[in-house]
Design a protein that fits this description.
Helix content: 40-55%
Number of helices: 5
Oligomer: single chain
Largest sheet: 5 strands, antiparallel
Strand order of the largest sheet: 1-2-3-5-4
């Protein structure tokens, strides 16, 4: 397996396509091909000195540690490694962003698989925290869901049980949001109730943060 890994010198010679240039404090994201395998590379090497040397190592190490913990879960990148202190490479998620897929082309089993992926992630002690939009969900050529971008993921190991359950529910409500919008008749009462509960906790979380900030600024 070691021969699939590449360093910075090799990276600079690989066929590359830009996926997202990002902003000043975000990575430049590209897709590179190495030995017939495609990789998503998150690279901070062109950012400012404080970003690439102070912020980037923390963000990259965090995402790499999360992906290592989640290894073996279907729908999650199977491999990830550090290119150097400024970049990581992650197995490329082949497929189409969920935002570009016609809702009627997806079966109810697709949403069950999304739910199962998140449940497995939670059992590993991780919350993704960005499941509500369609940008982080990919539909594979086999019509299976893939979840990407764990830079903002939260490690739940030291959270109290009740808080952890709330975070997981809010995370899961991102799946139920899409399920309710695209195939509400297939959700069932239990999932609908969980979705509403997750929505309630999410709104409380946002409002508490908003009013907390305003109170501090007074």
């Amino acid at each position: 397996m070691e021969n699939v890994f590449f360093d910075r010198q090799t990276l600079e010679r690989l066929p590359t396509s830009l996926l997202r240039n990002g902003r000043a404090a975000n990575a430049c994201v590209t897709c590179v091909t190495y030995r017939d395998s495609r990789w998503t590379v998150k690279d901070f090497s062109t950012r400012s000195w404080p970003v690439r040397n102070l912020i980037a190592p923390f963000l990259l190490r965090h995402e790499l540690n999360v992906l290592t913990r989640l290894r073996g879960i279907g729908g999650i990148a199977p491999l990830a490694f550090a290119v150097d202190k400024h970049a990581i490479a992650i197995s490329y998620a082949e497929g189409t962003p969920l935002s570009q897929v016609e809702p009627q082309s997806l079966s109810v089993d697709f949403f069950r698989q999304m739910e199962n992926i998140l449940s497995q992630i939670h059992r590993r002690g991780i919350a993704h925290l960005d499941t509500r939009g369609t940008g982080n969900w990919i539909v594979s050529p086999e019509k299976k869901p893939l979840l990407i971008d764990f830079q903002s993921a939260l490690v739940l190991d030291y959270f109290p049980k009740k808080i952890r359950e709330i975070i997981e529910l809010i995370d899961l409500s991102g799946v139920y949001k899409k399920w309710a919008a695209w195939q509400p008749e297939t959700m069932g009462q239990t999932r609908r109730e969980l979705f509403e509960k997750g929505q309630m906790w999410r709104q409380r979380w946002i409002l508490r943060g908003y009013f907390g900030k305003r109170k501090e600024s007074v």
